[in-house]
Write a structure and sequence with these properties.
Elements: H1 2-18, H2 32-61, H3 68-92, H4 97-126, H5 131-158, H6 172-182, E1 188-198, E2 201-209, H7 215-233, E3 235-243
Parallel strand pairs: 2-3
Antiparallel strand pairs: 1-2
Helix pairs in contact: 1-2, 1-4, 2-4, 2-5, 3-4, 4-5
């Protein structure tokens, strides 16, 4: 419970910090603090799963008697608290990786409580104490999968990798074809770079070749291209360098 409360606190703190305005030292703002929080929570989930595996192995090698009814009551209380928190986080939206990481922490605790309740009921009727470590191993496997997803996604964002699948399907060759079709003024374009600054914040830079035009004409074209990319592909920040 303590580790998951810490996870929620880290996520909330990251949201607050990310809202601070950009300055000279952080020209893109502090949005990536939320990605760091997701990475931290992913590491926490990985540690949680390893701890469950360790405890499960110890209990399998040295089975101990467990107070089924008492264990079940405590687990049910924890389950209700964790389930309520998880529902609140889900309603807040899981598109953001930071919020998703906090949600998965709560969900991991919820699954643990479900496993404990199930094990407690079985032990109460059968005295089969090994069911507790077996169920724990199952929970550990699920949590490990979630932690891997968080670690992978947060790390890829931090190293500016963009896989073109989130939040929309964005492929550089498709975007290039769309721009050529939509804007007849474009004679050529190259050096297209797309990356995810933070969850839901996509940036793009490109060089576009035009005919020899007046400066005010290129300004109008740039505005149309930026608006098109924002509405069509959800790209929030676009930098265009025109060439003749």
């Amino acid at each position: 419970m303590l580790s998951h409360a810490t996870s929620l606190g880290v996520s909330l703190l990251a949201i607050v910090i990310a809202q601070k305005k950009s300055g000279n030292s952080f020209s893109f703002g502090l949005f990536r603090v939320e990605i760091l929080a997701a990475l931290f929570n992913g590491i926490g989930l990985a540690g949680f799963s390893l701890w469950i595996v360790y405890e499960g192995v110890v209990r399998l090698l040295n089975p101990v008697a467990i107070l089924g009814p008492e264990l079940t009551v405590v687990a049910i209380v924890g389950l209700l608290v964790n389930l309520t928190t998880a529902i609140i986080l889900k309603r807040a939206g899981l598109e953001d990786l930071n919020t998703k990481s906090a949600f998965l922490h709560m969900l991991a605790d919820t699954f643990s409580s479900i496993a404990i309740v199930t094990g407690g009921v079985i032990i109460s009727f059968t005295d089969w104490v090994v069911v507790d470590p077996i169920l724990s191993m199952v929970v550990a496997g699920v949590v490990a999968k979630w932690s891997w997803g968080l670690l992978r996604d947060s790390t890829l964002i931090l190293i500016n990798y963009f896989n073109g699948t989130q939040p929309k399907s964005l492929k550089t060759d498709e975007i290039e074809d769309e721009l050529r079709r939509e804007f007849s003024e474009i004679k050529d374009l190259h050096d297209i770079h797309i990356w995810e600054v933070a969850s839901q914040f996509i940036s793009m830079t490109t060089h576009i070749v035009l005919d020899d035009l007046m400066l005010n004409e290129t300004h109008d074209i740039r505005k149309k291209i930026v608006d098109y990319l924002r509405h069509k592909f959800g790209i929030a920040h676009v930098v265009i360098q025109f060439e003749c």
